[in-house]
Write a structure and sequence with these properties.
alpha/beta, elongated, 125 residues, four-stranded mixed beta sheet
Length: 125
């Protein structure tokens, strides 16, 4: 008789645990159904696309070969690798959006860098 009572207590405790788990799952499901999605309007906050421009007249700089570096942080070895891949005679960095000095060199790679130091564009000249 004693074993039967313990067994019966186990069944009751187990059933109560299952019911609690089912109630918890149902309440989480219902909470997920009640949340309303937030709609965000479209804005023009997206940055402009990267710029790849080749100065005509000299085929020394192949700027398309520098696309692999977009989004990466600039450092001296990466700049040298970009220079080598593009076939440029020289390379330099410039803050994005700043005009470069007037004498354009078609054999030079210019790398545009954002304020965080990430490459956002490249051009020859």
């Amino acid at each position: 008789m004693r074993i039967h009572q313990q067994h019966r207590g186990f069944i009751f405790t187990h059933a109560r645990g299952v019911m609690a788990a089912a109630l918890c799952a149902a309440s989480l499901f219902m909470a997920g159904c009640e949340t309303k999605p937030r709609f965000r309007p479209l804005t023009s906050d997206a940055p402009p696309p990267p710029v790849f421009v080749t100065v005509t007249g000299d085929a020394d700089c192949q700027v398309a070969q520098a696309r692999y570096a977009l989004g990466r942080a600039i450092d001296a070895p990466l700049l040298e690798e970009m220079r080598a891949r593009t076939g440029s005679r020289s390379a330099r960095t410039a803050p994005a959006g700043t005009p470069l000095p007037a004498p354009a060199d078609p054999g030079r790679l210019n790398v545009d860098v954002d304020p965080q130091g990430r490459i956002i564009g490249a051009r020859c000249g």
